[in-house]
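User: Structure tokens for this complex, please. No commentary.
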Amino acid sequence: MLKTDGESLLFAVDLAGTLLFAIEGGSAAASGQLDLLGVMVLAFATAVGGGIIRDLLIGAVPPASLRDWRYAALAFFGGFLVFFLHRYVNGIPLVVVLVLDAAGLSLFAIAGTEKALLYKMPSLVAILLGTITAVGGGVLRDIFLARVPRLLQSDIYATAAIVGSVVMIIAGKLGLSVRWAAISGGVVCFLLRLLSLWLHWNLPRMGR
Amino acid sequence: MLKTDGESLLFAVDLAGTLLFAIEGGSAAASGQLDLLGVMVLAFATAVGGGIIRDLLIGAVPPASLRDWRYAALAFFGGFLVFFLHRYVNGIPLVVVLVLDAAGLSLFAIAGTEKALLYKMPSLVAILLGTITAVGGGVLRDIFLARVPRLLQSDIYATAAIVGSVVMIIAGKLGLSVRWAAISGGVVCFLLRLLSLWLHWNLPRMGR
Amino acid sequence: MLKTDGESLLFAVDLAGTLLFAIEGGSAAASGQLDLLGVMVLAFATAVGGGIIRDLLIGAVPPASLRDWRYAALAFFGGFLVFFLHRYVNGIPLVVVLVLDAAGLSLFAIAGTEKALLYKMPSLVAILLGTITAVGGGVLRDIFLARVPRLLQSDIYATAAIVGSVVMIIAGKLGLSVRWAAISGGVVCFLLRLLSLWLHWNLPRMGR
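Assistant:
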């Protein structure tokens, strides 16, 4: 495994996902009657919350998103976009939002899995950390909005991240390079998420 | 203090408490209209959340429950039991649930206190960390369900963990071995919890 | 920069802010129907929560407020004051509460910024960490009470902490000593908070 290869890949996908998730997090603030500060906090928490939880858990402190000012800058830029251009942001067709969100989910899942592997975590834990990276920010956002995190109730969302992370790890064990293992996992996560939306797939609910 | 004695004791009680709390956490998911993923997340968070918070606070990262795959496996096994056998789980008499929960509470309180002492924390902090280990997972579960943590409102629950932890530390200072100090603290916590349920003891509420 | 100067300043303002915030956190418990334990937990979380999050993020574990028993003792003392003297605490005029809260906010913002600088964080991150130290405990309190954190919705509260932290960092870059930079930042934060209350300033809300 080429460490530099993994690390530069990690950085690029992290930044792309950060902006995507910041825009989404800021948009969610509309439902909570938040002010400009609230929008910024939600954009920041959604964008970098998952990565910060992952970094705290593997002991990579200070977290990457605090050590490098570009994460915070991108997250706040996303928040500003939402706040000042919300008419345009609201006008974006839902399908575009869902596709971009699926892309962010996939990027974060593979970035999180990759970082856990760089820190020599066992496979099961790398899957867990990849998933936490992908969905942790959204869970934090929902906690700030005092509502049950959506992903615990419906949709194939965290599940797509889990599957993508599993595919990435298996591909790595089968001998694929870091880059191709990550691409395989990301594509599977992305397609599974979109397919599940299109076909209205849900996990079974708990019977009563 | 025999370190190996303390550490092996810690491991055994941790695993037993993990399964107990996972089953309980998964069961709580029924009230939140969660799907299979939600049940798994609640089982995991309830089972290992308290220990993870403790480990983050004392700087033992990655947390024990992420380094050893058996914690996650037990937690998810507990979640599966609840999800697929919920008719049977729901049929368990309340008294059995309460007794098992009191056992889990006691196991985690002494495991948390013991680990804090192994990390050379002062007594007051060891009591705090023992209590956080015991009740932290339940608090996380309630936060995920967007409700005020029950233990902040009524019952002798965290209080029993505090008293058990205090007894364990005093017993240790009086010269008892790690094992016997832990057993003393655990038994006191367990009995106090059950006694308070039986006699409907509550802490005073804030007057208005 | 005299490190000892900064550190002793940090310690003094931290203790003063801890007691102020504990009293406030405990008072907030009245709205959540909490018992004695709940009041203690809210006093503790509000008082030391922000500092603990800051310490976890910069890797200063165990957090200062767990290593030194005086933080916990002060926090619980504040909780006891509220619980047993709540008639008198409730009788304190609102203006006094608001002024004391503004003082606590300022103390924590500069203490958090100072500690982040001692740990060699870049300026943007020091501002973020100063603000988290100042408002993190209040956010934790609101999460425990299952409500959307107030500071995300209205008031110049976190914003005052941000501005105070920015002033402190600029003053330091302009060559002021740690002590005077901190005092400048704290005074600006304090006055901005009170001025905004007096003049009913709010940040813009997100349009709909």
